[in-house]
Amino acid sequence: MKRNKQRKKRIIYSTIAIITLLGAVVVLCNFIVDKNAEGRTFNDINNVPEMETALLLGTNPKARDGKKPSAFYMARINATAELYKHGKFRQLIISGDKREGYDEPQTMRQDLMKRGVPDSVITMDGQGYRTLLSMRNIKQNFDVHDMIIISQKWHNERSIFLADEMNINAVGYNADDVRHPRAIWTHIRELLARVKLFIDLHVTHRKDFCK
């Protein structure tokens, strides 16, 4: 009986220690990413520096119900059109997921053209189904060294960290975030995505695939 109690205590203490360690890792990874992007993401369009290239990061155009437009998506489209109208970029690269029956860059292109962004300034990258791959493609296929990244602030911060790793000078223009209760899962995933970021860069060395 005494041994069983001791075993249960060890299991409980070990579980608490593991959870505490994992929580500390999540907090640390998020702190590093936030700190790295400090002063380099902008809510006010007047503070965004003019650059030759802007990168619009893709997301699902549809909300979870599959009918309504995604609020995250619409915010990125509106932010990009606003940047163009203010003359902040001359070339736009749309990077997102493209597969049979699903094409984020093409859908974004069509919606941007409706908002006055000319097709002549748009280039599409259909191999950006992960942020890491979007940055790889920018470096390898488009020879871009300076750019404005367009997404929500939390995504911009992670993207800037990746851009730094690839020697790309980047700032972010923050599209409006979504405060709906359902969006909480997106923000939780982002916390974990920042841990995955460090695993990709320093454990599995996926950055090496981008050289």
From TrEMBL:
Keyword Magnesium: no
TM ranges: 12-33
DUF218 domain span: 71-175
Record-linked CDD domains: YdcF-like
Keyword Transmembrane helix (UniProt): yes
InterPro entries in the cross-refs: Cell_Envelope_Assoc, DUF218
Keywords: Membrane, Transmembrane, Transmembrane helix
Gene Ontology CC terms: plasma membrane
Protein name stated in the entry: Protein SanA
Species name: Prevotella fusca JCM 17724
Lineage of the organism: Bacteria, Pseudomonadati, Bacteroidota, Bacteroidia, Bacteroidales
